[in-house]
Design brief:
By secondary structure, the protein is mainly α. The chain folds into two domains: 128 residues, no CATH class; 218 residues, MetI-like fold (Orthogonal Bundle), CATH 1.10.3720. 66% of the residues lie in helices and 5% in strands. The chain has 18 helices and three strands. Helix 10 packs antiparallel against helix 15, helix 14 runs antiparallel to helix 15 and helix 15 packs antiparallel against helix 18.
Amino acid sequence: MNNTEIVKRGLGKRYAREKRFRLYGRCAVFVGFIFLALLLVDIIVKAMPAFSVTEIRVEVDLDRDNLGLPAEGPVTAKMLAGVNFNGAIRKGLREAFPEATSRKQQKALYSLVSSGAWFSLSNQVADNPQLIGQKKVIWFRADDDVDTYYKLGRRTSRIDDLQAGYIDAMDGGNLIRTAFNTALFTNSDSREPEQAGIRGAVMGSFWTLLVTLIVSLPVGVAAAIYLEEYAPQNRLTDFIEININNLAAVPSIVFGLLGLAVFINFFGMPRSAPIVGGLVLSLMTLPTIIIASRAAIKSVPPSIKEAALGIGASHMQVVFHHTLPLAMPGILTGSIIGMAQALGESAPLLMIGMVAFIVDVPGGIFDSATVLPVQIYLWSDSPERAFTALTAATILVLLVFLTAMNAIAIYLRRKFERRW
């Protein structure tokens, strides 16, 4: 056998191994895609019930005498604060089901409506005082167990035969329906699943990320410019670079402990506030921004710097008029990816108290707040079954935000990237 035949036989074996390797790679990609698709489908299926809510039709008598208001004269906010709106709703339910005469029957009937229905009625009357003196048909949110039973047909331990009979009777009499759950996007957290929403968590995430961006982007870019353009090559610089790379791999909960010790215990800053959360996430995001910014600055060809220096530009002019603008797409891409990482973090924020139950929507960086990942953590630990759908819906919203931020980073990179 001559050398040519030996080489040809060896080439055939190598080509066969290459084909098998490519097949293994395709199989790995396919398996990973299947697992990702199964995860997304599972989240979407579990989240769909949270985007609709069950409502019960009640004809409420808003007569002054029925509400305990004076027969004549203007109605003030102080008067409305003392009105028993819950009693008006229960009276409407009794009129719809006059056969509910015993205490047990009436208790089962009243429990079909959300415990926060009176607050909704109070707000409607306060916003529109002309409703006083009328009989008004209002759709109130049903209790979370009723909602689960009506939409999914799953009876919880708190839905007995008597309540199930009332629900079936309402369904036959068009007294119950499902509608889009606007409260999911307009309300904040609540102990009642049918009243809970993510608006407070979304605004908390917004204020926290705003602080993170304001602190981490200028500091990270400035540090990258100094280390890449001005810092001398010595042991101190090498030590700083090694520590920056090491900080990028530090567990996020360590930054939470640092924030608890420094910002809260030492400086006395408020707990559960976006200002503290933003500072903690800034510390965590800085290594990512510095590393990405340095890589973007280093990718600018030396010929551009040399040409600028050759026509008399100073070093600072070269950096800020030529190097930095050309490196900006990479810097923005790294910054957005770092911000997306910060948006999905929960461990460091748990350490600084952002796990508190927050009802009000934060109006600034010093107000008590929570964020989307922490809201997911809180709802996933709740015993009510309806919170399972809310948890999945919040995960879906968080994934949408993360996907959008990564899509923006990809778009900026492709639009402004230059190939040298």
